[in-house]
From TrEMBL:
SMART domains: Lactamase_B. This is hydroxyacylglutathione hydrolase. Its EC number is 3.1.2.6. It catalyses: an S-(2-hydroxyacyl)glutathione + H2O = a 2-hydroxy carboxylate + glutathione + H(+). Pfam families: Lactamase_B. Pathway: Secondary metabolite metabolism; methylglyoxal degradation; (R)-lactate from methylglyoxal: step 2/2. It comes from Anncaliia algerae PRA339. Keywords: Hydrolase, Metal-binding, Zinc.
């Protein structure tokens, strides 16, 4: 059975995801649970980023069976739709830190604490590989150290490097691309290729090459701390 991934942009910059086949589905961080519920009975395009309005334009199909709802961490802009989804689909299983096997699909929960203590990245290891990073890794960035420190982020990023195939596509919890490109070019002073800046999602290999937080791993935890402090000052008032 072939599983695909579609993306849903909610609030201002949050991403939610649906992993689906013709009949089955798994959602990740369903803040807008009504949108996810609607997506279960829509013909979807793989890797397309949908708004609620765009989703309504898609052709209706028989509703897929939503088996699991995965949360990358407890923050309400990611887990806030759980209760509403459970009311609509009482049998859906809520998963926070557990591996899943379904048909030929394997999803591994990789603990990546720092942004929050319970942060998990979900590694979809199939024909196409994806890592759903929540607020641990962003496009050319990483999450703020709300409940952890530079040691936690150092360990979490290294765990990703150790366990995840380099061709895996990184699926972030937020669209912070423009802000992070600006930080890399204006503060880190790195030159980014146009083809990298034009993408919405990067592979792990691309993140390891161009993301300054991955680059800092070779220099130790203090480099991560200094870089995160610079990012906090650069993005004063933002959450990424």
């Amino acid at each position: 059975m072939s599983f695909k991934v579609s993306v849903f942009k909610v609030r201002e910059d949050n991403y939610s995801y649906l992993i689906y086949s013709d009949k089955l589905a798994i959602c990740i961080d369903p803040f807008d649970y009504k949108l996810i519920y609607d997506a279960l009975e829509r013909e979807l395009t793989e890797l397309k980023i949908y708004t609620a309005l765009e989703l309504q334009q898609e052709r209706k199909i028989p509703q897929r069976n939503l088996l699991y709802c995965l949360n990358t961490h407890w923050h309400k802009d990611h887990s806030g739709g759980n209760d509403g989804l459970k009311e609509l689909i009482p049998n859906v299983q809520l998963i926070t830190n557990k591996d899943i096997s379904l048909e030929d699909l394997n999803i591994y929960a990789i603990p990546t604490p720092c942004h929050t203590k319970d942060s998990v990245s979900f590694y979809m290891d199939g024909k196409q590989k994806y890592l759903f990073t929540g607020d641990t890794v962003f496009f050319l960035g990483c999450g703020m150290f709300f409940e952890g420190n530079e040691i936690d982020m150092y360990n979490s990023l290294n765990e990703i490097v150790k366990r995840v195939n380099k061709n895996t596509l990184m699926m972030y919890g937020h669209d912070y691309n423009v802000k992070n490109i600006s930080f890399v070019e204006n503060v880190v002073k790195s030159v980014l290729p146009k083809e990298i800046k034009s993408k919405k999602f990067l592979t792990l290999e691309e993140e390891m090459k161009y993301n300054p937080f991955f680059n800092a791993l070779s220099k130790g935890t203090n480099e991560l701390k200094v870089l995160r402090e610079k990012k906090n000052e650069f993005g004063l008032g933002s959450k990424n």
